[in-house]
Amino acid sequence: MPSHPSRADYIHYMADFFEFGLGHEQPSIKLLDIGTGQCRWFSSLVSKADNVKPAKKLIRKLGAVDIREIEMKQGNKVTRVLAWTFI
């Protein structure tokens, strides 16, 4: 990862990291940038429950100090948002 990445660089880096780290040909994790230039929290929408544990492991490997999982339910569908910070 570049030493001073732009938000776009970071989003592309994380998408590649998850794609290759989880071993998917087509990643099922989408990244959304909601930062304001001084982003303290990063987030990712994870639709498959099987991807939550490996994603958390990869995020910890990057050095995150806090990772939170938020479940969102609509009818029978459950999606999760992973949020993490490095500070």
CATH architecture assignment name: 2-Layer Sandwich
Uncertain segments of ≥5 residues (pLDDT<50)? Answer: none
Strand order of the largest sheet: 1-2-4-3
Percent helix: 25-40%
Q: How many strands?
A: 4
Q: What share of the residues does DSSP label as strand, in percent? A: 25-35%
SS-based structural class?
Answer: alpha+beta
The number of domains is 1
CATH C-level category = Alpha Beta
Short précis:
With 87 residues, the protein is an alpha+beta fold. It has 2 helices and 4 strands; from the N terminus they run αββαββ.
Reconstruct the topology from this structure:
Elements: H1 7-22, E1 29-31, E2 42-46, H2 52-62, E3 66-74, E4 77-85
Antiparallel strand pairs: 1-2, 2-4, 3-4
Textual characterization of the structure:
This protein has one domain (7-85): 2-Layer Sandwich (Gyrase A, domain 2). The chain has helices spanning 7-22, 52-62, and strands at 29-31, 42-46, 66-74, 77-85. Helices cover 31% and strands 30% of the residues. The radius of gyration is 13 Å and the shape is globular. β3 (66-74) and β4 (77-85) form a beta hairpin. It starts with 6 loop residues before the first helix and ends with a strand. It has a 4-stranded antiparallel β-sheet. It contains 2 helices and 4 strands.
